[in-house]
Amino acid sequence: MDELVALCKRRGFIFQSSEIYGGLQGLYDYGPLGVELKNNIKQSWWSSMVYERDDIEGIDTAILTHPDVLKNSGHENTFTDPMIDCKKCKSRWRADEIIDNKCPKCQSTDLTDERPFNLMFKTKLGPIDDKDNFAYLRPETAQNIFINFKNILDTTSRELPFGIAQIGKAFRNEITPRNFIFRVREFEQMEMEFFVKPGEDDKWYKEWVQLRLDWWKNQGLTNNLSLLEVEQSDLAHYSKATTDIMYKFPHGTEELEGIANRTDFDLGSHTKNQSDFEIQSTVTKNTTSNSKLASLCSESKKWIIPFVIEPSAGLDRGVLAILTEAFTEEKIDSNSSRILLKLPTHLAPIKAAVIPLKKNNPDIVNKAKEVKLILQSLGLGRIILENTGNIGKSYRKHDEIGTPICITIDFNTIEKNTITFRDRDTMSQETYDINDLKDRFREILS
Ligand code: ATP
Fold it and tell me: pLDDT for 63-105, tens place per residue?
């Protein structure tokens, strides 16, 4: 983990937030390469959910959330972690971090009893400081999908089964944020709620577990994934069944994504006149909603509250898993080694670096600029002109940040119209006619 964190800082993937003021625990900022990597992961997820299927719509909703939403969803009462304080050193722990009844910091056994700690952040709304004028920062993106169910149904005329996808920030006041970007207080989720007829939920649940596992494999996670079926006694209040996709992170094997059968709990809990429907789960009694979140069943002609299957992935945990898997230290010969990120091409922050052999030669540099613009115009991602005058150093940098191809522009480019491609993983070099530039590049990136 230490090497990965150092690489992320050195090369501009991820920085501690507010670092110049000593940092804020559990908050990170993404740098020039981190934002590209994150955007590429989001793009891949969005494509697989929204563009490549015909049964999922996308939305982007507010972060500040009406208290009634999170009251009826059960979060106000149950979104808690058990917390224990050490009376000696005053440190604070999640109960599952206490081993053998000892404080992990000072080993004292003088501990408080366990008490629930609600993980939601509150903020005041408007200029008047009044205890009733507040909103929550959403602890998951899902609830805003549920409360928009009718809007989507009315505007798209969807019939079951169909899904609604969203990528966005979520906030949890974690008691002990830790392990770099694995457990943080502000993070991004990629969530999709797939609404199905009651009775078809088990089938769709199994299907989504498989689809999501395959998607992570396509992001380059081929070695360290596993599935964990959550024990009935550990299920969240809304869940009939949950499978976690686990990843072997540098600090241990932990959850990357959860796929839950949330039944009809959420739509049922946000619906008015609940007794008009055959709701199967034990919903929160709702007195404030003005809408029925139901779908008209084409066969029975009855309004039903759909069941929902939810694949919920953490983007930041995805970044950590993808970087972990890609991080490679390789011996070049008996004296030297190199670090490289073997990222899949579609996730690489920089798709190609165009490197002039001579920093101050206008012919070579102008040709390199031309090549950069030609490749950039293909719309395949960021291409950069790397005019440092030191080819070896540029190769090392681009290996470390996962750039699949370095393209060298030299005297032959000017005289013979050739360019040289260097492959990140094999370090092999091949020379092409400049007229083949676009085709060759497209081929490599696909
Ligand atoms: P955990 O048990 O690790 O706290 P969770 O079961 O509470 O996670 P969910 O509520 O299922 O997590 O959230 C869905 C996804 O959001 C998780 O699989 C994870 O990838 C991500 N996630 C949840 N909490 C955090 C956090 N504090 N920091 C980063 N990502 C998170």
Answer: 999 999 999 999 999 888 889 999 999 998 989 889 999 999 9
pLDDT at 284 over 90: no
* Measured distance CA(360)–CA(405) in Å, rounded: 23
Q: Which of these three, 118, 144, 176, is where a domain ends?
A: 118
Ligand 1 atom nearest to CA at 315: 20
Q: Report how far residue 63's alpha carbon sits from residue 144's, in angstroms, rounded to the nearest whole number.
A: 9
Residue nearest to atom 11 of ligand 1 (CA): 258
Cα distance between residue 374 and residue 389, in whole Å = 22
For residue 182, report the distance from its CA to the centre of ligand 1, in Å: 9
Residues 56, 204 share a domain: yes
pLDDT in tens, 290-338: 999 999 988 888 999 999 999 999 999 999 999 999 999 999 888 889 9
Q: Using CA of residue 211, residue 212, residue 217, residue 223, what is the dihedral sign?
A: negative
Segments forming the whole domain that contains residue 383: 348-445
Both 13 and 145 in one domain: the answer is: yes
CB 66 within 8 A of CB 135: yes
> Is residue 194 domain-resident?
yes
> What's the 280 CA to ligand 1 centre distance in angstroms?
27
Interval 192-203: pLDDT, tens: 999 999 999 999
Residue of the CA atom closest to atom 1 of ligand 1: 255
Q: Are strands 162-171 and 56-58 parallel, antiparallel or unpaired?
A: parallel
Q: Whose CA is nearest to atom 9 of ligand 1?
A: 258
Point out which residues pair with 183 in neighbouring strands: 178
Model pTM score: 0.94
**Per-residue pLDDT, 117:** 86
Residue 342 lies in a domain: no
- Nearest CA residue ID for atom 4, ligand 1: 183
Looking at the structure of the chain, the number of domains it has is 3
Pocket of ligand 1 from Cβ distances under 6 Å: 140, 172, 174, 183-184, 187, 189, 255-258, 312-314, 316-317
Given a cut of 90, whether residue 277 has pLDDT beyond it is no
